[in-house]
Amino acid sequence: MNQVSIVTSQAGAVIGHDDAMRFLPVGDSMTIGATGDFTWRYRLWQHLEACPGLPYEIVG
After folding, report:
1. Cα dihedral 2, 28, 46, 7 sign
2. Which residues are paired to 23 by β-bridges?
3. pLDDT tens-digit profile of 29-60?
4. Where are the domains of the chain?
5. What torsion, rounded to 10 degrees, do the Cα atoms 36, 21, 55, 32 define?
6. pLDDT in the model for residue 54
7. Alpha-carbon distance 20 to 54, whole Å?
8. Which pTM does this prediction carry?
9. Are 21 and 6 in contact (CB under 8 A)?
10. 47 CB contacts (<8 Å, ≥6 apart)?
């Protein structure tokens, strides 16, 4: 993952420094993974942890 796209429900909405971005991975095989493999939730978490100063929350 080299980039993050942000979709908002309001035109011109701005994410403040105190607002955490919330991610909701959906699907079954895409988010659950398989034996010997990491899930997309884990890979997303790894990527977000590597982004300093990015407040986030993985929900669901």
Report:
1. positive
2. 58
3. 655 666 666 777 888 889 999 988 888 898 87
4. 21-58
5. -10
6. 83
7. 8
8. 0.54
9. yes
10. 1
What is d(CA 35, CA 5) in angstroms, rounded to the nearest whole number? Answer: 29
3-state secondary structure the chain: CCCCCCCCCCCCCCCCCCCCEEECCCCCHHHHCCCCCCCHHHHHHHHHHCCCCCCEEECC
Q: How far apart are CA 20 and CA 4, in angstroms?
A: 14
HSE-up of 18 (CA within 13 Å, CB side)?
0
Number of residues that this document lists for the chain: 60
